[in-house]
């Protein structure tokens, strides 16, 4: 049905194409958005960005750009700096400057470690039950005595630290 | 303004062989760090351990050791006398 309607339009020449173009403005071209155009960027690995930093020059800057076309020895130091600032936003030194971010990060890490510690203390006090009886001092001394009787790790380990003649730990 | 230009020229920075210089530095460094680590391990851990084992077994009497363990009562199949 749509195809037959189109045919009727062409057949009757009800709308001329030139009128259509004028109605839209520019031959159907869409305005280029900012994000689709080359952009300026301050990056260490991009020494010469695709566009200059300042896009719309003031009258004074335009005059300076005209002066740039002549001999550069005629430019004063301030004019050279102004030309630099037109082309670039931050110098490498400015771009690479350090921040105090590490203090924030370190502070945040230590703070949350502290919170974790408080949580663990609360858990030990209010949540966990008693530890096994095999951790009591009596049991541990019986355990150690049995390990020495069995001569556990006699070369470099626990039995090498015990004096079997004097029945005490080696000094 | 942060950017200032002095009338005297700055000395020309090193332009060439930057990677070569960095590589040479790091090759030497890597070599000495690895050799150092190996030497520290050998003289700090490996050799003392070998000496400890040699000392232990120099005058080791297994039967005496066994009798001592048996007297302490750790064996099920060999009760104390």
Automatic annotation (TrEMBL), chain A:
Main subcellular localisation: mitochondrion
Pathway as given in its UniProt record: Energy metabolism; oxidative phosphorylation
Gene Ontology cellular component annotations, sorted alphabetically: mitochondrial inner membrane; respiratory chain complex IV
Entry keywords, A to Z: Membrane, Mitochondrion, Mitochondrion inner membrane, Transmembrane, Transmembrane helix
Keyword RNA-binding among UniProt keywords: no
One GO BP annotation of this record: mitochondrial electron transport, cytochrome c to oxygen
Membrane topology recorded in Swiss-Prot or TrEMBL: Single-pass membrane protein
Pfam families listed in its UniProt record: COX4
Keyword Membrane: yes
UniProt-annotated location(s): Mitochondrion inner membrane
Family to which this protein belongs: Belongs to the cytochrome c oxidase IV family.
Subunit structure: Component of the cytochrome c oxidase (complex IV, CIV), a multisubunit enzyme composed of 14 subunits.
Protein name: Cytochrome c oxidase subunit 4
Lineage: Eukaryota, Metazoa, Chordata, Craniata, Vertebrata
UniProtKB/TrEMBL annotation, chain B:
Topological type in the membrane: Single-pass membrane protein
Pathway in which the depicted protein is active: Energy metabolism; oxidative phosphorylation
GO process terms (BP): mitochondrial electron transport, cytochrome c to oxygen
Signal peptide: none
GO cellular component terms, semicolon-separated: mitochondrial inner membrane; respiratory chain complex IV
CDD domains: CcO_VIc
Transmembrane segments: none
UniProt KW Mitochondrion keyword: yes
Free-text function comment from the UniProt entry: Component of the cytochrome c oxidase, the last enzyme in the mitochondrial electron transport chain which drives oxidative phosphorylation. The respiratory chain contains 3 multisubunit complexes succinate dehydrogenase (complex II, CII), ubiquinol-cytochrome c oxidoreductase (cytochrome b-c1 complex, complex III, CIII) and cytochrome c oxidase (complex IV, CIV), that cooperate to transfer electrons derived from NADH and succinate to molecular oxygen, creating an electrochemical gradient over the inner membrane that drives transmembrane transport and the ATP synthase.
Subunit and interaction comment: Component of the cytochrome c oxidase (complex IV, CIV), a multisubunit enzyme composed of 14 subunits. The complex is composed of a catalytic core of 3 subunits MT-CO1, MT-CO2 and MT-CO3, encoded in the mitochondrial DNA, and 11 supernumerary subunits COX4I, COX5A, COX5B, COX6A, COX6B, COX6C, COX7A, COX7B, COX7C, COX8 and NDUFA4, which are encoded in the nuclear genome.
Record-stated family: Belongs to the cytochrome c oxidase subunit 6c family.
Name of the protein in question: Cytochrome c oxidase subunit 6C
Organism: Mycteria americana (Wood stork)
């Amino acid at each position: 049905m749509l195809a037959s309607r189109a045919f009727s339009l062409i057949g009757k020449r009800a709308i001329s194409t030139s009128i259509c173009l004028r109605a839209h403005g520019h031959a159907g071209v869409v305005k280029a958005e900012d994000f689709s155009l080359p952009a300026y960027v301050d990056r260490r690995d991009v020494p010469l960005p695709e566009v200059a930093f300042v896009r719309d020059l003031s009258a004074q800057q335009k005059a300076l750009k005209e002066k740039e076309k002549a001999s550069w020895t005629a430019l004063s130091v301030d004019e050279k700096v102004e030309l630099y600032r037109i082309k670039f936003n931050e110098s490498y030194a400015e771009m690479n400057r350090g921040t105090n971010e590490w203090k924030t990060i370190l502070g945040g890490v230590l703070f949350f470690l502290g919170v974790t510690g408080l949580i663990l203390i609360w858990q030990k006090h209010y949540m966990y039950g008693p530890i096994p009886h095999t951790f009591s001092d009596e049991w541990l001394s019986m355990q150690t005595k049995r390990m020495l009787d069995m001569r556990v790790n006699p070369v470099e380990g626990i039995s090498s630290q015990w004096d079997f003649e004097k029945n005490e730990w080696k000094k | 303004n942060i950017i200032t230009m002095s009338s005297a020229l700055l000395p020309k920075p090193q332009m060439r062989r930057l990677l070569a210089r960095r590589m040479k530095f790091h090759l030497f460094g890597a070599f000495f760090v690895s050799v150092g680590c190996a030497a520290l391990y050998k003289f700090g851990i490996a050799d003392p351990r070998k000496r400890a084992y040699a000392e232990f077994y120099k005058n080791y009497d297994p039967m005496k050791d066994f009798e001592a363990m048996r007297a302490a009562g750790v064996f099920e199949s060999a009760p104390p006398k």
